[in-house]
Design goal:
Elements: E1 12-20, E2 24-36, E3 39-50, E4 56-62, E5 69-74, E6 79-84, E7 92-99, E8 106-113, E9 118-123, E10 127-132, E11 138-147, H1 157-172
Antiparallel strand pairs: 1-2, 2-3, 3-4, 4-11, 5-10, 6-7, 7-8, 8-11, 9-10
Length: 182
């Protein structure tokens, strides 16, 4: 109904860490009885990250269908916003770059999504938002942060924009392995 609703009114919540390794870690959170828009649904959230990447993967599954889910990035007056709906050759994204860290350093933030799930870009007082349409009651997306002081750092907005565009293309064109058995 025109406003973002956090996953906050639930019957109960459980959380576990199924993987906590040096190369891969994940967190699974189950929200039971999420009350949203006059309905109730269960929401399973699987959040994961591989070593050596800035990308975290968010996978969401609903027990009851909803028209859309949304995610986004906090607005900061010191950051420039960039976005793309994506297409067959690249994922869509919403991203910001600027002096938006708590230490007033250069920081890039991005959310990447499959363009087949794209609903719309919107915003509210606090956030740049992308709405995503679940398919089979599921939706997933990736998010990333790039800080100017990190190892292999991205030093400016142009480098961050290049990273975002390369990542959007990579996500839309995953590596495929074919094994011929003789």
């Amino acid at each position: 109904n025109g406003s973002a609703v956090r996953v906050e009114k639930t019957d109960s919540v459980t959380c576990e860490i199924p993987e906590n390794g040096n190369l891969f870690s994940s967190i699974q959170t189950n929200y039971y009885g999420w009350q949203v828009n006059g309905a109730k649904t269960d929401l399973e959230s699987n959040l994961s990250i591989h070593a050596g990447t800035r990308l975290s993967h968010q996978q969401l599954a609903l027990s009851e269908a909803l028209d859309n889910l949304c995610t986004g990035i906090a607005k900061d007056p010191n950051a420039t916003m960039m976005s793309s709906q994506g297409d067959n050759g690249q994922f869509g994204y919403v991203a910001t770059y600027g002096k938006q860290s708590l230490n007033n350093d250069e920081l890039g933030l991005a959310v990447f999504f499959d363009p087949d799930h794209f609903g719309e870009f919107t915003s509210d007082e606090f956030s740049h938002i992308v709405t995503l349409r679940p398919a089979d009651k599921k939706v997933d997306y990736y998010f990333a942060a790039a800080w100017v002081e990190e190892h292999n750092r991205i030093k400016d907005q142009a480098a961050f924009q290049k990273y975002v565009q390369q990542t959007a293309k990579s996500l839309a064109n995953p590596v495929k392995v074919k094994v011929d058995v003789k």
